[in-house]
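Good morning,

Both structures are done.
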Amino acid sequence: MHAFGLDQIDRSAYLEAVLSTVPEYIIVADPDMQIIDINEAGLRLIAVERLEDLSNRDLMSLISKSCRPAFSQAFEAGLSQKNVPNDKPVQIEFQSLDNMLHLLELRFAPLKQPDDGISAVVITARDISELRNTLAMVEQSTSVLQSILATVPDPMVVMDEKCRITSFSTAAEKLFGYAENALLGRNINILMPTPYHEEHDHYVERYIRTGEKRIIGIGRNIEAKKQDGTVFPIRLAVGEARAGAQRLFTGFIIDLTEARNTEAQLQALQADLLHSSRLSAVGTLASALAHEINQPLSAITNYLSAARDMLDSGVGDNKELLYEALRESASESLRAGTIVRRLREFVAKGEINREILSIAQLVEHAMTLGLVGAHDKGIECSIHIDPDTNHVFADRVQIQQVMINLMRNAIESMVDSRIKHLNIAVRSVPGEKVEIAISDTGGGIDPEISGKIFDPFTSTKSSGMGLGLSICRTIIEAHEGVISAEPNPEGGTIFRITLLKANEEQSDVE
């Protein structure tokens, strides 16, 4: 094989081949700005097939009038550069013979003669019309986005898949107390209290890895944190978008503070109303018991009085009558017991409207209601839900009522505690069941009543009626579950609730 050098081939043919293949437009113009040569790409730009077809070779005639001064200045600078090309690009508008307008970026270099004189200028150009249009669209989109961020009524935050904030709306600035430029590029967990602060990045990483949606397109109630440290409830809806290979997440936020305050006030009113209704129920029950039991008690009294009189006067012929009086007394005693049992069953019976529910959403919503004001009392809250817990078949309102009752009890028990930590853990347990454990670090339960805290009229509070935990047990047992309490190794109490897991085909047949 024989190797050839450029000195062994036609150099002009070589250059012609190179110039015909490069994508840039290359034009050679003499000092009078007359085109003396042009490559294939340049011919296509001008819209001619051959240089000979160009009747007017005046380069300036193809330049838009507004751009001619800048072009002339750059061209003269190219002529004056003795040894180095002018690398500073110049943008001009170029009109081809087919009346198409192009935005070109030009660079100029002198074409030297053997005596170091300059015979022409070589102009290299590339069409940046599409780039200009793209930049204009980007600028327009940015302007529109800025307008949206400035006017959208609900706070909006945009983050990338590394959890870094890329946009922060004006409403979000007002809500959280941060300026946008102070947050751009920072991790979004700066807006979250414990435990969301520590767990958020893990949730995003799990979604990117598995595609399993826990909040995207669903929404959930969580807590957020302002710049001054204030923790408050929000409703968060998250959307996902892609910009090329980049993934972005947009969060729309609704401040639930006012709604939760209203709910707290309603709960307080409901608690007062419930207290009054319980007193009324106890009075009604006592009245009903007195009325219903009065007859068997009166009969028992009469029979026993007759028996006593018979014993005083000697049994004799009254033996059969004495036995009859004692038998009737026993019968009336059983009747009184039956009345009490039926009244208890009537009071305990409640209607259940069960449905298939996400245990995670059920627990999180109950926490939002039950933990109102907990942070203000210095209580630290945490939650852990095992991913395999899935769904339960339950009455949403009643189970949340039980959880809120237990959380409120836990908060009250920790008022004077040095360590104030409330934890909620959800896990699967054998028998296709789910366990919800609510633990506190309060004063614990008095050992003298620990075995009967779920009995009616047994209270751990000095002002309590002792019906709250009894009602909780009634609700859980109606769900075929179990509720129990045990000492917390860290101090305080752990209440455990077990519920049946849901099957796909389950429905409410109550």
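Second structure follows.
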Amino acid sequence: MARVTLQKGFFTDREREILTHAGMTASLFRYDSGIEAVRIANGRGHLVVLPYMGQMVWDAVFDGVDLTMANMFDQPRPADVIVGTYGCFAFHSGLLANGCPSPQDTHPLHGEMPCAPMDGAALEAGEDADGPFLRLTGHREYVMGFGAHYMARPSVTLRPDRTLFDIALSVENLAGDPMDLMYMCHVNFAFAEGARIVQPAPFTPDATVVRTAVPGHVRPTPDYTALLAELERNPAAMEVLDEPRCYNPEQVFYIRGLRTGPDGLTRLMMRRREGDGFAIAYDPAVFPHTVRWVLCNADQKVAAFALPATCEPEGYLAEKRKGNVRSLPPGGRADFAVRLGYLTAAEAERTAALIQSL
């Protein structure tokens, strides 16, 4: 395997190719905002990843289809919290705390990891049992006096001529005490009006549970409150995204009892009117919670139809009361992996049949 350790001095305002492998390329550039970026591409499309900013995936385009939420940011901005640059395709949410903080919580929205400054990054080119790959890796040592100490290692892997790719994260507790762990792979797929969500669980009140608690950043109206009550009775009304006005303010669902295939993975898909779709697959034993977040207004349009997580997004204190805060022992390690991306119409047809057969 070939490995190139990246340095910030490699990044300039002019994009330049640094590595090729099996028909794939990696190129480096720096946005006008000063944020460094790596574009990894194959014959079908590309990903733009921010190697030193939480290693978030800023952009994803395959077969000419933009997978990323519509947003107000024309480029990533320097920020300490995710709302300061909320335009990315995916970010690592957590790790010591997660979700929307209550007034009693002390953590930032979605925790310390989304915009975390990474200690280093590297490109890897090689081949494994799944074929050739091009991978961006990184690492960050978090250490706080009288507090937590961990090592986080994210990665993004692309393969030749494929429109599905892998986002992974491993975290190791380096402290002498147990570590609280709350993680969500926060994937912000584009809102596709008229799309149908396909999931291996029924659209019933017990399996597709509407969040009725209203977070602090949402200002409910009487119509919104009435809609929540209706969705609590009939969540199937949101199986097809044909009423954009219903997602302003946002709607959040908890998907429970997801069935898995012989490989142990669950799969969900959002199938567009064009017949193609967006897809995601993961192990629900590793991600015991799945959250759906849909928002459609004049400034942001997002259909995060499956957010794999170890917890729900109500903030540390609420999740602690529910028993959803995982404890990682000293020296313990947790590994997370998600496969996601774009499907052609033919692939989406096969995936829909597979999901419905589970």
